[in-house]
Design brief:
Largest interface: A-B, 87 and 75 residues
Oligomer: heterodimer
Distance between the termini of chain B: 42 Å
Distance between the termini of chain A: 67 Å
Shape of chain A: globular
Structural class of chain B: alpha+beta
Helix content of chain B: 25-40%
Number of helices of chain B: 17
Strand content of chain B: 25-35%
Helix content of chain A: 25-40%
Number of strands of chain A: 20
Chain lengths: 530, 682
């Protein structure tokens, strides 16, 4: 295949568009708010070797290469797909580390010839088991597990599998509806890929794939090569459950290869906050890309120079059958470890640590009208940057939007009594950390209710960088009494309330170097009180 | 009986843009009899407009004008340049930071250094009022009126000119907001007060508050501008009434615009879309893809069944251009446009992967593309179009500006080595291929997001660069027809004249469909109609009712048009069926057993649109030929260059006019329809 000038660009952008359109079709049809509002899904195009050649830009770093990793497992098990086949799994160790994420893959044909695959990973609204909490002790308690299987076989639905899933999950109609949306989304992507191959007379995707991955790999290697060789270390300490979690990170740069190793990190937890290696790799890769080459598209080539390892049995490479539903509580702190380590050689592109994972709060209870479950997300402050303050009450590293208070109150008996920035919670520094927020809530019910909140940094506030001070620690109060372990379910007496104090971000640079105008402005605006 | 704008007299439209103010005059039969293009006077835009009116009247001294329809970027610019009034925000106690916390979302996942837009009201001027209304409209904490009174001297001391009041669940129970406004105005009548229920009583506190604040921030400015403009118009046209074009493409009296200026944010682009829809309609086409391409951006809008798509998730003043989520959300109804960072001035460059990219950086008009000879040296889309022969060096802007072909070639040639090609023509081909691909991709993505099929639309090309690129983009989108109206350069001003009086209102009333009280709903809809009719100037007209519905558990709603209800039909069932039908249309399936839920009622009130003919062609061109590059023909071919009235037959062909050049590719059939509208079948 000889490409004329400008043709590679057109073909490449069509590939990315195929993935983007596939994702858009899926988002449009999904029943799960976190998929629609926060883009907790991914979609990608693969060549016939299973190399990922394009991925849609969506809201979650959690699927960055886990979708690509699962593709190879599918290929191993189903080397000879035929038209009309659709493959599925939610096996945490083979895909993205949580049962709620279904990965669905569809082969793409041009005539009789298999030219590649399209796939998507999408968060299901329910998967049975204990729901999205850290309460489980083994993955068996967390819901139904589907090993790599055919969801459709030559166009015929696998009725047994559909019935099995239906029987094992809450809100089964919506869950099956979303699975169907994934199948339809894949069809949109597959049709576009076929069209590209036919319109440009490519025959197959091989040469295009070679060119795309080679260029991406070259660019990634160039960015790595610009950093001096060496081993750069960092660590992050977190609350965990029952016992603190330590993350130890060593980044080795050797020419144009980069290895991130998490040896020395805590052992796996007996609660559901364990991370599988795919998810560890996803958040690690995310941070590497932000620092090294944010504009390089995701594909097989981009990841080739990167190696991510963690000892088996550690919290970042948990051994089956560890419980994993709350993996994000730990996984979303990995970018801080990566950026801290790289700050020694790439100070321009790093930032102080922030509040970290998005706080997922689940409230269960009953009113006279029946039982209810309400889930909502909230974020604290991000770390200050070399040139700017941190962002207040903003999700980082994930991209999770909050639900408007009015919408939340219209669809549940929950009442939010206060939702405001926490003054003085941003770490002081030349640039200030973003402020955390305080959320006070109650329930319109005369019965007790149960709350769990997947929050952290109550005992381990976000440290500052380069002389900046730490942000304020988080807090969790039940009817005025401070709690140390918000992650496990707690009962709240009737008429009680809870307060979430989300942590602030760390500061950057010595506080004495902050410009007097900014100090004054923070005071006048009540972001600081002293 | 419906009333038509202006009651059938002479009418003038005026579109104030960044560089030029365009004016058109139509006679009582709706025929365009004059066009004026005058320089915009940024300091006092009304002055340029007045000059334009004088120019039109010089050629039509006997015209008795009874209506001036005006579109302006004043409100948008005030928001972008932060030139509004000193504004305070009053919120429910505990929610002072609603404006700043927003959606808690970064608009770019990979840029660590992003900035979020600064709220229009700094934290120091955000005050809390003790009160609380719950989701069902019941009052949990009554309004503390004393606390509001105590705020008045504070506002005075801070020099506040305008106040936004946005309280929780005010879409359900606006009385607290209204009472706050009353108290403020009793104590300080000169204070400008906007309540969120006045702007758009829709669920979602952040988006509603953001729109309310933006309205308060721009209202004093808009009021002053409009009253000055009315004075000037009265001086020149004693019988004429001033109307403004809203972002929805409907017309409202100046008094309404002065109250809710935020409704004007997209008035210019709305005019362009209306003109496109109008031209398509004149050749019997009801599904149009309006495509406008200028110097720095391109805009697309799908017009279905003659109606442009509306949205209320519009954003203004984006921190990062073209990136969704980086601006201030303005939750008011407006025509749904996708803006793409691709125009004639977009600069071509090589990225870190060695790939050719076009835009979003633009050479603008200063220094402009290299071929303008104004000092620009970077290669742009216009340079590529010139080198390939699509544009001509001698007849650009009717020959007023000679383009420098050598400068264009030199600029493009700087990329030859990086691309591994020989000479500027190959670079130009690549630039053009990529920019067309980008625009088509954005149009297709938008269609997919909305569940539309682009291939059933006809592409209508406007803007300076639109007609040059229209046919290539149509081919990528598998669109079979391209329409080119005359005078694409004054499309917006022309579109204003065909816009009907009307207003769009909405109110959230969340409820499971099962529990909907239809009598209550009807009372609410009648109230909405009355409000819309009043805002539209008290005209007679018709209403269209839509409902935002969703299945319980879903976050996003779909908007469905409320069908006519027969005598013995259950309205709830009718709505449920409409939701299911819309679902099936968009997604091909309906979730089994899901419970439908009503979120928001929407009502569009619209009078009869006035009859306006499409704009007549400009001066004719002398037919000639020139070499033009077409891939299909393997390179340069001598192609006929004709004026609009000579355009017919089969491409390749270049139709040249003063403001634009329409490129017709080989084998395309060209047909000259009524009113000089060209219809090309690909």
């Amino acid at each position: 295949m000889t490409l004329r000038a400008g043709q590679l660009e057109v073909l490449w952008s069509r590939l990315v568009a195929a993935a983007d359109e596939q994702a858009a079709a899926l988002v449009r049809t999904s029943f799960t708010p976190i998929v629609r509002d926060s883009g907790d899904l991914s979609a990608a195009v693969f060549d016939h070797r299973g190399w990922m050649i394009a991925q849609a830009v969506t809201g979650t770093p959690g699927h960055i290469n886990s979708l690509a990793a699962s593709m190879h497992h599918f290929l191993e098990r189903f080397p000879d797909c035929r038209p009309g086949d659709v493959l599925i799994t939610n096996e945490p160790w083979l895909s993205s580390g949580q049962l709620n994420d279904f990965t669905v893959v569809t082969p793409v044909f041009v005539g009789e010839k298999l030219v590649g695959y399209v796939g998507s990973t999408c968060h299901a609204i329910d998967i049975g088991g204990r729901g999205l909490s850290a309460d489980a002790r083994e993955v068996y308690e967390e819901g139904i597990r589907v090993p790599p299987t055919k969801l459709y076989d030559g166009g015929a639905p696998n009725e047994e599998l559909f019935r099995l899933i239906e029987a094992n999950v809450r809100m089964s109609k919506l869950v099956l509806g979303d699975l169907h949306a994934q199948v339809v989304g894949n069809e949109v992507g597959a049709a576009r890929v076929t069209e590209i191959v036919e319109e440009f007379g490519l025959g197959d995707l091989t040469e295009l794939s070679d060119e795309v991955t080679a260029r991406s790999e070259r660019r990634m290697r160039q960015a790595i090569g610009e950093l001096p060789d060496g081993v750069y270390r960092s660590s992050v300490d977190l609350d965990g459950i029952d016992e603190p979690v330590h993350v130890e990170c060593a980044i080795t740069i050797d020419g144009t290869d980069l290895t991130v190793d998490y040896a020395g990190s805590s052992s796996q937890s007996s609660y559901g906050i364990n991370v599988v290696l795919n998810y560890t790799a996803a958040y690690t890769t995310y941070a590497l890309k932000c620092v090294l080459a944010p504009d390089v598209p995701h594909n097989e080539g981009t990841f080739r120079p990167l190696r991510i390892t963690a000892p088996e049995g550690s919290i970042l490479n948990a051994r089956f059958p560890a419980a994993v539903a709350g993996r994000h509580v730990i996984g979303q702190f990995l970018p801080f470890a990566v950026m801290d380590a790289l700050s020694q050689v790439a100070p321009h592109a790093t930032m102080a640590q922030g509040s970290g994972n998005v706080w997922l709060t689940t409230i269960r209870g009953a009113t006279d009208e029946g039982e209810f479950v309400t889930v909502f997300f909230a974020s604290g402050g991000t770390g200050a940057r070399p040139e700017r303050d941190g962002l207040s009450a903003t999700s980082f590293p994930s991209g999770i939007a909050t639900t408007p208070v009015e919408v939340l109150e219209s669809s549940s008996p929950v009442v939010i009594e206060e939702k405001a920035l926490r003054p003085d919670s941003g770490g002081r520094g030349r640039h200030r950390g973003g402020l955390g927020q305080r959320i006070r809530m109650s329930v319109r019910s005369d019965r007790p209710w149960v709350v769990s909140c997947l929050g952290d940094r109550l005992a381990h506030p976000a440290p500052g960088t380069a002389g900046g001070e730490p942000g304020a620690a988080g807090g969790f109060f039940v009817s005025g009494v401070g709690q140390t372990d918000p992650k496990l379910s707690t009962e709240v007496a009737a008429g009680g309330h809870i307060v979430l104090d989300l942590p602030g971000g760390g500061g950057f640079g010595p506080p004495e170097e902050r410009s007097p105008e900014l100090v004054e402005r923070d005071l006048v605006d009540g972001r600081t009180t002293k | 009986m419906s009333e038509v704008n202006g009651g059938g007299g002479w009418r003038i439209s005026a579109d104030i843009g960044g560089t030029f103010t365009d004016l058109l005059i139509v006679d009582p039969a709706g025929r365009c009899v004059g066009v004026a293009k005058v320089l915009t006077t940024p300091e006092e835009p009304a002055e340029g407009l007045e000059r334009g009116i004088q120019e039109l009247l010089r050629n039509q001294p006997d015209a008795v004008v009874d209506n001036v329809v005006h579109g302006t970027t004043l409100v948008t610019n005030a928001l972008i340049e932060r030139r509004g009034s000193r504004t305070a925000l009053l919120t429910t106690e505990g929610f002072r930071d609603v404006l700043e916390i927003g959606r808690e979302l970064r608009y770019d996942l990979y840029d660590l250094d992003i900035e979020l837009p600064d709220p229009l009201v700094p934290r120091r001027w955000r005050y809390e009022v003790p009160e609380r209304v719950l989701a069902d409209g019941s009052v949990r904490t009554p309004l503390d009126e004393e606390a509001v009174r105590r705020l008045v001297p504070v506002l005075e001391e801070e020099g506040i000119e305008s106040v936004a009041v946005s309280l929780l669940h005010a879409y359900r129970w606006p009385n607290h907001e209204r009472r706050v406004a009353e108290i403020l105005q009793e104590m300080r009548p000169e204070l400008d007060v906007t309540t969120s229920a006045d702007v758009l009583p829709q669920i979602g506190e952040f988006a509603r508050t953001s729109a309310t604040v933006a309205n308060a921030y721009t209202r004093p400015l808009a009021r002053k501008y409009l009253s000055d403009l009315e004075d000037r118009i009265r001086r020149r046209l004693p019988k004429a009434r001033l109307d403004l074009i809203a972002s929805t493409g409907r017309v409202a009296p100046a008094a309404t615009a002065a109250k809710v200026p935020i409704r004007l944010v997209e008035s210019g682009p709305a005019g362009g879309v209306l003109a496109a829809a109008n031209a398509a309609e004149s050749v019997g086409i009801r599904h149009a893809l309006a495509f406008d391409m200028g110097g720095t951006t391109a805009k697309v809008c799908y017009v279905t069944d003659g109606e442009p798509r509306l949205t209320d998730s519009f954003e203004v003043a984006r921190v990062k251009r073209f990136i969704k989520g980086s601006g201030l959300p303005i939750q008011v109804p407006s025509i749904e446009l996708v803006e793409i960072g691709a125009g004639g001035g977009s600069i071509a460059w090589l990225d870190d992967l060695g790939l050719l990219r076009v835009g979003p950086r633009s050479a603008g008009s200063d220094p402009g593309p290299a071929c303008y000879g104004l000092g620009g040296t970077l290669p742009t889309v216009t340079d590529a179009d010139l080198v390939l022969g699509y544009l001509s060096a001698d007849s650009f802007l009717g020959g007023e500006m000679t383009l420098d072909v050598d400068a264009a070639r030199r600029a493009l040639d700087t990329l030859s080595a990086g691309l591994g090609v020989d000479g500027p023509e190959e670079v130009a081909r690549a630039v053009r291929g990529i920019v067309d691909e980008q625009m088509a991709a954005a149009a297709r993505m938008h269609a997919i997001e909305q569940g539309l099929d682009p291939s059933i639309y006809a592409l209508v090309a406007t803007g300076g660069a639109g007609p040059v690129h229209a046919c290539s983009i149509a081919r990528i989108l598998h669109v079979g027809k391209v329409i080119s109206p005359a005078r694409a350069g004054v499309a917006s001003a022309h579109g204003f004249l065909g816009a009907p009086y009307g207003f769009d209102v909405a109110r959230s009333a969340p409820s499971p469909l099962e529990e909907l009280d239809w009598n209550e709903a009807q009372a609410l809809l009648d109230e909405l109609e009355e409000e819309a009719r009043t805002q539209a100037g008290g005209m007679t007209g018709s209403r269209r009712i839509e409902a935002d519905l969703r299945f319980r558990g879903q976050g996003a709603a779909v908007t469905v048009t409320m069908p006519q209800i027969g005598g013995d039909e259950d309205p709830k069932q009718v709505l449920a069926t409409a939701l299911e039908a819309e679902y099936r249309r968009r997604y091909g399936r309906v979730p089994e057993g899901a419970e439908p839920e009503l979120l928001t009622w929407r009502l569009s009130f619209s009078a009869q649109p006035p009859e306006v003919e499409p704009a007549p062609p400009g001066r004719p061109t002398t037919p000639s030929t020139r070499p033009v590059w077409f891939d299909e023909l393997g390179g340069f071919t001598e192609v006929p260059v004709v004026g609009r009235s000579e355009a017919a037959g089969t491409g390749p062909m270049i139709v040249e006019e003063r403001e634009s050049t329409f490129v017709v590719p080989p084998n395309a059939k060209v047909e000259l329809a009524e009113h000089s509208v060209l219809v090309v079948t690909l």
